[in-house]
Design brief:
Blueprint lengths: L11 H6 L4 E2 L3 H14 L16 E3 L5 E6 L4 H4 L8 E5 L2 E2 L5 H8 L6 E8 L2 E8 L4
Parallel strand pairs: 1-7
Antiparallel strand pairs: 2-3, 3-4, 4-5, 4-6, 6-7
């Protein structure tokens, strides 16, 4: 390691066991992440109507919507809060029980660097995860 910087390693077991029911990033962290996303996409998506992006999550094509896959390196995977088999019950404050897959996808997609709220259920536990959208 250069310059004596410490390399931190994630501990998925600890993160899952001690994870709060609501994961929300502090505003200064979200702002820095937005800046990094904008730098990475060369400014694409800074204006409304720019290219839309998601969170790297695939779900079943019929309700009830179940998480089928998390794409490596994408926000849903990196959060370490979402697992294959979790039930997706809400997006951006909306219940998705009566929505089509396209309507759910439209709620998930947005401008790079913006956040989206997911409400999920695992067994009897329901929890909320906030993620920043990022281009693949």
């Amino acid at each position: 390691m250069e310059g004596g910087a410490k390399q931190l390693k994630p501990c998925p077991e600890l993160a899952r066991e001690s994870a709060p029911r609501l994961l929300r990033l502090p505003d200064h962290v979200k702002e820095r992440m937005r800046q990094l996303v904008m730098e990475g996409v060369g400014g694409a998506g800074r204006e409304a109507g720019g290219p839309k992006c998601g969170i790297g999550l695939a779900f079943t094509d019929k309700a009830p919507y179940t998480v089928e896959a998390l794409h490596d390196g994408e926000p849903a995977h990196c959060s370490e809060m979402i697992s294959r088999g979790d039930l997706l019950v809400g997006v951006a404050g909306h219940s998705i029980a009566d929505m089509t897959p396209l309507e759910v996808t439209d709620l998930i997609l947005g401008d790079p660097g913006t956040e989206v709220e997911l409400r999920l259920r695992r067994s009897e536990d329901e929890f909320v995860v906030w993620l920043l959208r990022s281009p693949a």
